[in-house]
């Protein structure tokens, strides 16, 4: 129960920073559209703004055009998403930080969407070190290339709900790839640092297409205010909106 409450709290904080609502406009984004970061325009800028709680100018909810298999986390069934065809989902694994999350990887390993609503770091671990852990883990999967350029950066902190919250994020380029990486922390004296993290990376020449076709649709699947209230007609533990056959308890 405590684990689920902890997950719910960190996920709520994560959504505060990343959720959005529909606004006037369209899902066709002007390539020159400015953002809150001078180095990010068009779809890249919209994605950066979205991570900074600025609503995208969408009138339609982004959805996968080629839905494939469904992922359900073995330890936390409420962490469930439909992934696109041509991608595979893996439960995030790391003995050091005990993450509860998912890595959605394109079959050519060139695009990754990582969402970790809860992991744990030793008390006192710095915000920069937590972000570096995610960035270095990403770079290691691509042969540890150097970072060419940091396009956008944000570090901020606030005190909410009686504890310190921090955010650290980068939009960066390395080799032929562009990535958005950010971490959110919650700190209480005497306790490990609770962390939510997200990584989105794809080839630079495909990045905006992947953002619109994959990253936004995956992220929008998480924007459910209270999954405990969702219907589950076949009582198989998977909410109907995530169930490929919501009336068959043997199929999820």
Comma- or semicolon-separated keywords:
single chain; 252 residues; alpha+beta; seven-stranded antiparallel sheet; two-stranded antiparallel ribbon; 4 helices; 32% strand; disordered N terminus
Characterise this structure.
This protein has helices at 2-18, 42-51, 127-140, 207-221; strands spanning 67-72, 80-84, 87-91, 100-106, 112-121, 147-160, 163-174, 177-187, 193-203. It is an alpha+beta fold. It has one domain (2-225). The chain has a 7-stranded antiparallel β-sheet with strand order 3-4-5-9-8-7-6, sandwiched between helices. Strands 1-2 form a two-stranded antiparallel ribbon. Helix 2 runs parallel beside helix 4 (207-221). The relative contact order is 0.16.
Sheet with the most strands?
Answer: 7 strands, antiparallel
| Beta strand % | 25-35%
Overall SS class: alpha+beta
Give the count of structural domains. 1
Strand order of the largest sheet: 3-4-5-9-8-7-6
How many extended strands?
Answer: 9
Which spans have pLDDT < 50 for at least 5 consecutive residues? 1-9, 18-26, 225-230
Shape: globular
Radius of gyration, in Å, reads 18 Å
Mean pLDDT: 85
Through-space gap between termini: 24 Å
Order of helices and strands: HHEEEEEHEEEEH
How large is the count of helical segments?
A: 4
What is the helix fraction of residues, given as a range?
10-25%
